[in-house]
Structures are given as structure tokens and as C-alpha cells.
């Protein structure tokens, strides 16, 4: 049994790579979800990025422009990648798609609760005030993040695919009569 179990071990590089890719995908989905929601509700499509940038620039980020938005994107992607790597440490390449989706969405909802109740009010009050205006969008963005995380096992499988050389099998030649 130990031999079959070791056959499914994922190399650390593939695990970390899958975590980085899934975390980045989740972060991009989250940013996109928030920007679409903010645009549709007339809060301004760039507001979520500026609110994230307020972690560095404070309330001035809301009027700062592209620099604050770029910092917001970097903050979101960096945090998403770290969470993606941590998520990958608890996943296996053998995890089913349904189980990975369930785990990803649960993690996304847990992060939503932690960020909304504890982290944002203390770390970034400017963003907390803006997020309070769009609670449904913020929740949906965290579910989208979880969906991105759910790609981890698929990415692990892709990063660990064995490269089989093609074996050329001699064929019989049929001579015309």
C-alpha cells in the first residue's frame, strides 16, 4: 500500500506552481468580479482597486489614480498567491473536481467572513467602508476566488504529467499483389 501511495505524491515544485497559478487565477477572478459589480452599481469600476490601494495610501488612494490601483492589484495578487500555495499544501492531485470545488468555495467563504469581520475594519478601514456599500459583490468575489482555488488539483496534474516518449512500433508492410 505504501508503494501505491508514494506513486501519487506530488513534487513540491508542481504543488507550489499549482498553488501560485490557482491563487493568481482566483485573485484575477476576484478583482474582475468586484470591478464588474462596482461598475454595474455605479460605484465606479476602479473603486475596488483604489480601496485595496488604501492599505498603503490611506483614504487618499480613492483619488490617487493609477498608482494606487496598481498597488491594489499587487496586494490582491500577492495575498491570493500566498493563500493559493497554502491551499495547495492541503490538496492532492487525486482530489476530485467536486471535492476541490467544495473546498475552494468553503475557503473563499471563510476568508470573506474573516476579512469582513476582523481584518478589513482594522487593517484597511477605507476599504471596509467601501465594501459595506456592496456586501453581495464582496461575497460573490470570494466565492469566485474559491472557484479559482478549486483548479489546484487540475493544475497539479498538469504540472506532473509524465512525459512519455513515443514508442515506434514496427508495422507490417503490405505488398501490392
Describe the structure in your own words.
The protein has 177 residues and is mainly α. It has one domain. It contains 9 helices and no strands. The protein has helices at 2-7, 12-40, 47-57, 61-64, 66-89, 97-123, 125-131, 135-149, 152-159.
Q: How large a portion of the residues is in β-strands, by DSSP E?
A: under 5%
Helical amount: over 70%
Number of domains: 1
Average pLDDT, to the nearest integer? 90
Enumerate how many helices there are, as a single number: 9
What is the N-to-C order of secondary-structure elements (H for helix, E for strand)?
A: HHHHHHHHH
* Strand element count: 0
The general outline is elongated
Q: Helix/strand-derived class? A: mainly alpha
The biggest sheet amounts to:
none
Radius of gyration from the CA trace? 22 Å
What is the CA-CA span between the terminal residues? 56 Å
Sequence stretches where pLDDT stays below 50 over 5 or more residues: 1-7
Amino acid at each position: 500500500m505504501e508503494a501505491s501511495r508514494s506513486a501519487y505524491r506530488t513534487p513540491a515544485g508542481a504543488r507550489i506552481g499549482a498553488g501560485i497559478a490557482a491563487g493568481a487565477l482566483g485573485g484575477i477572478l476576484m478583482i474582475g468580479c468586484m470591478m464588474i459589480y462596482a461598475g454595474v452599481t455605479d460605484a465606479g469600476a476602479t473603486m475596488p482597486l483604489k480601496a485595496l490601494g488604501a492599505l498603503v495610501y490611506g483614504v487618499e488612494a480613492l483619488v490617487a489614480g493609477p498608482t494606487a490601483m496598481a498597488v491594489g492589484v499587487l496586494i490582491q495578487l500577492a495575498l491570493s498567491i500566498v493563500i493559493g500555495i497554502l491551499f495547495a499544501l492541503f490538496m492532492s492531485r487525486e482530489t476530485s473536481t467536486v471535492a476541490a470545488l467544495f473546498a475552494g468555495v468553503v475557503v473563499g467563504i471563510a476568508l470573506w467572513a474573516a476579512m469582513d469581520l476582523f481584518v478589513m475594519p482594522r487593517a484597511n478601514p477605507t476599504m471596509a467602508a467601501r465594501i459595506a456599500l456592496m456586501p453581495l459583490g464582496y461575497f460573490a468575489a470570494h466565492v469566485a476566488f474559491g472557484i479559482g482555488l478549486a483548479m489546484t488539483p487540475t493544475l497539479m496534474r498538469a504540472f506532473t504529467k509524465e512525459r512519455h516518449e513515443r514508442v515506434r512500433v514496427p508495422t507490417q508492410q503490405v505488398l501490392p499483389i
